[in-house]
Amino acid sequence: MSTSQMKRLSALLAFALLSLPAVSSAQTYFRFPASQLADQCGNGGCTVSAYKDYGGRDYACGGVRYAGHTGTDYALVGGFSKMDYGVWAMNAASGTIESAVDGYFDRCTYWDQSNPYNACGLYTANYIIMRHADGTKTKYWHLKKYTQQFAVGTYLTCAYWIALVGSSGASTGPHLHFEYWVPGYGTDDPYGGSCGTPYTRWTSQGAYRGLPGIACQ
Ligand SMILES: [Zn+2]
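Structure for Peptidase, M23/M37 family protein, as requested:
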């Protein structure tokens, strides 16, 4: 190989190395899954009422969790009056609506554990599940009855108003249960911290007990 060929090759290699992304571009990152407008979750309208449970602690080694909780609960500070006003859940990233359930009673104040098919039981929440490009899924639970805006199979870019937050299923008050699912693993936590996973799946995780940022990936 001549010197000029060597130079061209090393230039090509340098370009190839510089072109490698820091993280796999296939990984999906999420924005906060509800509206942050001033009359919605903005101005303290929503609060974290429970994180994913890591056997008694949350991702940051705090106690904002309850036993067996698999997602994050974002509660409406104004309760049912705020729910009646209407607060929009939003898809946290681009993806396809994979499945959805609607039509169940949406003013639950307790979890009916006598039968999961009863109103306010485990299987009677209105919900949407979205599938993202990297195969991960996000789940939006306890939605208000008959407020879903898109049919199953619809592809949405990030941050559409998909349904109103409600209190259907096993729910003690109006809140959005947001859950993150990974193929081959199962339910995971989008938050990263010293008592959870070391990485975050939010575009901007935000402070503990604060809300994640609204920038789309
Ligand atoms: Zn929950």
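Residues 50, 69, 71, 73, 177 surround zinc ion (CB under 6 Å).
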